[in-house]
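Example 3.2
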Amino acid sequence: MTTELSHLEQIKAASRFLRGGIAEGLADSVTGAIADDDTKLLKFHGSYQQDDRDLREERRRQKLEPAYAFMLRARLPSGVVTPAQWLVFDRIARDYASGSLRITTRQTFQWHGIIKRKLKPTIAAIHDALATTIASCGDVVRNVVSTANPIESSAHAEAYAWATRLSAELEPRTRAYHEIWLDGEQLAGEEAVVEEQAATEQEPLYGATYLPRKFKIGLAIPPLNDIDVFAQDLGLIAIVEQGVLQGFNIAIGGGMGASHGDATTYPRLASVVGFVTPEQLFGVAEAVIGVQRDWGDRVERKHARLKYTLDHRGLDAFKAELESRLGYALAPARDYRFDHNGDRYGWVEGHDGHWHLTLHIESGRLADAGERRWLSGLRELAQVHAGDFRLTCNQNVIVANVAANERARIDAIVREYGLDVYAKQSGIRRHAIACVALPTCGLAMAESERYLPALLPKLEALLARHGLSDAPILLRLSGCPNGCSRPYLGEIALVGRGPGRYDLRLGADFIGQRLNQVHRENVDETAILDTLAPLFARYAAERGEGEGFGDFLLRAGILTPIPSRRIPVEVVA
């Protein structure tokens, strides 16, 4: 077996802390792309080089290079956006990108279709809005997510504050970001000065080659698991007793990605290993990251996530190493219970008398298209709103911190722009998530976001036939098995195999604590609908009170449980 480091590890090692040749590539006006090795480093700065796959073949025939453009992703801890930031992000979407804002499943925004010469001014505009794109992609700790309404109680607010501080603490320290994108003095200086400063630069947590793969952290506040805490590399479960934040249960080793046809890759739910106080949180997070940095597979990237490190080395061995580095043993995990992992639509009152309105945004796409004017509607809300906005991991947006006497004005704008659709939608539509997929994602094997509007009415018709229109069912679509839409936690999930063909996966629960399983492999839409129709009929006739679709499939014996991938519904220490 080879022990040679993967090519990307070699790129990182030679990059001088993520500089590489990015600056030179941006200055090259001959092509709309940058060098292939530099595209790997560009991810650490928050951007992916993409091309319009709808145009590939035609441009090839015309002997033109692909229609290159860049996706840019912000780093917005816990998904909090001020109205001023929202207006800047909206302007970026219209002036520099494809005219839309895309809410991701990690509580942040993506912009698509940014051409190379506009990439630097776009990042500068984000910086001027007091935000950043650093480490929103790449082999680092990504955007730290948390339960989307942290001001429901004072304990919620405290837990959110810890998540936000943790995100800042774990950002890379390289000066390359400011040099390349913000005209830092190093970029303007002589090359020898740049080399000297890069040579003395350090990344105290990450080291010169950063992590073996991406690392995701999420904080959930029971009973809501709206972030899918067990899908995180490091999951934090806030323990609140008598209204006081006591600390966090620590869960490690979650991850959604897999590869078709490779049984050595798989989704995994995080394992709960103990409890820490708030004051211990930073040290524990850095120690978990440090063990993964040192133990993770840097030869085979398919096996480089923390979940594989745990399974290859053993959970007990990892925990022992973690506690050795900490100098103390983790306390036993404390009791907790999750009720669901969806969003709560409509108005909710917070502990301080302010109100919060959750709006459903299909596939997280804010655009003005046809009769749907959601981009304009949110822009108008941002112009009058005195609170802030909260993005959710289910691709929705919360108009947060609304004074009681402002609700009527917010409601009027919401109605005017058709943003009140949540009140009229079916249960499955309100709980559907889709990744971007085609035409911009280079990994997509099948449609996802563009397919959802065609698929949903067909599923809704089947459900309505059996009186199930209001039944909340988690639907997840993914154009490939990498799992950005967390498809393996969908009660119904389609995972792309090829054009028009998907694996139909069934059987997750509604609280994010059980993975689904393949029910039909590599099937088309007709087979999918034909498979689901009799299952919906049985569910309507035989379900118990409050029983979810995924739970019913297992209880009825239609699916066989997978014990090794199941977390108890209620965990009692």
